Amino acid sequence: MRENHFDNVSNGKGFIAALDQSGGSTPKALAAYGVMEEAYSTEDEMFDLIHEMRTRIITAPAFDSEHILGAILFKQTMDSKIEGKYTADYLAEEKGIAPFLKVDNGLAEKSKGVQMMKPIPNLKDMLVRANERHIFGTKMRSVIHEANAEGIKEIVDQQFKFAKEITDAGLVPIVEPEVNIHSKEKEEAENILKDEIMKHLDKLAEDEKVMLKLTLPETPNLYKEATEHPRVVRVVALSGGYTRKEANEKLRHNEGVIASFSRALTQDLRVDQSDEEFNESLRKAIESIYDASVNKK
């Protein structure tokens, strides 16, 4: 199954659905869906509600392997079930979609113009659990706010340090050093980031394969060299606060890059929609993101 996932994620047409809202971002995701904070009183109740939302998305007819290559999950989602199967098994067996797991513990405080990842002391145990749950790959996010060369170097160093542990465990890491779309130094920061990424890619051993999840750049095709690198499985783009229309338009100008959208995927979904309305909204979103991932300008 893992070999099939690898070939499909590497070469298939489609995109990666990001369904990995964590404890910090879940209230916002639920609110956008129409579930306000007064609807739950504990964290467990909150995660049950977000799992209901994710289940509704994943089981929808439009959420299929013709359009979607992979889906990124949160830890609780990995350990939850859909129609009697663990989520990763449901994705792989019922949908033919590769499951990924968010493994970071959130962001540290801003320093040197960036936010590194908090330490991940439980990474080894989490990777063992991910393999037991038949997870294909992982994702970890840090954020760049300024064109600070020292800070950006440290972020990329940290990302690839963890990526090494993940590849050693037999999983495919998605390296995600996001550049804040509101940064006044966005273009300069992206140029520094690209140079640091390429340095690390060139040092990877032949059996060390990674994916990159990057902010849609100011310069079209900035990451084209990365998309062609032999150690890169796929380059995917985050929506980062852009609307779906904005993100899709930017994506079309980046050859070899496919979407890995979260908010831009779910922005039109509401808890009070009928199944017909919900499925139609999701279908339109999936088809538009697929089109921008596949058809370039």
Automatic annotation (TrEMBL):
EC identifiers of the protein: 4.1.2.13
Entries under InterPro entries matching the protein: Aldolase_TIM, FBA_I, FBA_I_Gram+-type
Keywords: Glycolysis, Lyase, Schiff base
Gene Ontology biological process terms from the UniProt entry: glycolytic process
Pathways per UniProt: Carbohydrate degradation; glycolysis; D-glyceraldehyde 3-phosphate and glycerone phosphate from D-glucose: step 4/4
Catalytic residues (UniProt): 176 (proton acceptor), 213 (schiff-base intermediate with dihydroxyacetone-p)
Reactions performed catalytically: beta-D-fructose 1,6-bisphosphate = D-glyceraldehyde 3-phosphate + dihydroxyacetone phosphate
Pfam families cross-referenced by the UniProt entry: Glycolytic (PF00274)
Domain of life: Bacteria
GO molecular function: fructose-bisphosphate aldolase activity
SUPFAM superfamilies, alphabetized: Aldolase (SSF51569)
Keyword Cell membrane carried by entry: no
NCBIfam families: PRK05377.1
Similarity section: Belongs to the class I fructose-bisphosphate aldolase family.
The name this protein goes by in its record: Fructose-bisphosphate aldolase class 1
Classification lineage: Bacteria, Bacillati, Bacillota, Bacilli, Lactobacillales
